[in-house]
Design goal:
Elements lengths: L1 H27 L16 E6 L8 H5 L2 E2 L2 E2 L2 E8 L3 E2 L3 H8 L5 E7 L6 H11 L8 E3 L8 H19 L4 E5 H8 L9 E4 L13 E10 L8 E6 L3 H4 L3
Parallel strand pairs: 1-4, 4-6, 6-7, 7-8, 8-9, 9-10
Antiparallel strand pairs: 1-11, 2-3, 4-5, 10-11
């Protein structure tokens, strides 16, 4: 019996050590020599946004990455979508990043056809105050008209502002911005614009604070491709919660 116990303990120990080595090697494989794409000179502050699609993240490796004069200065985490979907990695990522020096924000993926108040309440319940203003991700219409989209987004912003005392930034792609927001009553809101081919024309506007320039970034400690963003020099001041 004693020999059998010793044998089982030995097998367990070997398996555990093997697992540790495997994890170390696996993390080492996600170390890169660059950010995967050319980082534009426009904008002075580099940041990323992540969700469950990026999987488990080694934040020490990610935040320790420095290429030339660039390093990650801010992170936006997906928190919620619609009125009932919570990102499964939000809590863990938020808990870790709250212990780091990096600026952190959270975003909600907006569904125009879902009840706005339900979405506001859901996002508010999940996300406690962060160092950066929250973001409302608006990039699909779900068949809603331009007017209906503007109306529902306006309602979300007003309700959230009244509830939490801070007005979210709007994230969208340049095509959606031009089609829905550019000439609407929301044109003076703070914006974060995505364009993976060229700098957004609206980036010259004082209320466009961020440019998402790639969805194919490579960041140490992250297995999957990552969204990369450049923010203006006054971003931290204007986006402070």
């Amino acid at each position: 019996m004693k020999h059998w116990v010793v044998f089982m303990v030995s097998v367990t120990l070997v398996a555990f050590l093997g697992f540790i080595l495997l994890e170390q090697n696996r993390n080492a494989n996600f170390k890169y020599n660059n950010f995967g794409v050319q980082v534009p000179i426009q904008g002075t502050i580099l940041g990323i946004d992540v969700s469950h699609h990026q999987g488990e993240i080694d934040w020490d490796m990610a935040l320790g990455m420095r290429i030339a004069n660039d390093s990650i200065q801010f992170v936006y985490l997906k928190a919620t979508e619609g009125s009932d979907f919570k990102d499964r990695h939000y809590d863990k990522n938020r808990r870790i990043l709250d212990q780091k020096k990096v600026k952190v924000g959270a975003y909600h993926f907006f569904i125009p056809t879902s009840p706005v108040l339900d979405q506001v309440n859901f996002f508010s319940q999940i996300v406690a105050k962060t160092s950066l203003k929250p973001v409302l991700d608006v990039e699909i219409s779900k068949g809603a008209s331009k007017e209906a989209c503007v109306d529902s987004v306006t309602k979300f912003l007003n309700l959230y502002t009244a509830m939490k005392g801070v007005r979210p930034i709007i994230y969208t792609n340049e095509s959606f911005y031009n089609d829905v927001f550019k000439n609407s009553s929301l044109k003076t809101e703070l914006f974060w614009i995505a364009n993976f081919k060229t700098i957004p024309k609206s980036f010259v506007n004082s209320n466009t604070l961020l440019w998402q320039f790639s969805e194919k970034g490579t960041i140490n400690g992250i297995r999957e491709k990552v969204d990369l963003n450049k923010a203006k020099f006054n971003f931290f001041e204007l986006a402070k919660w």
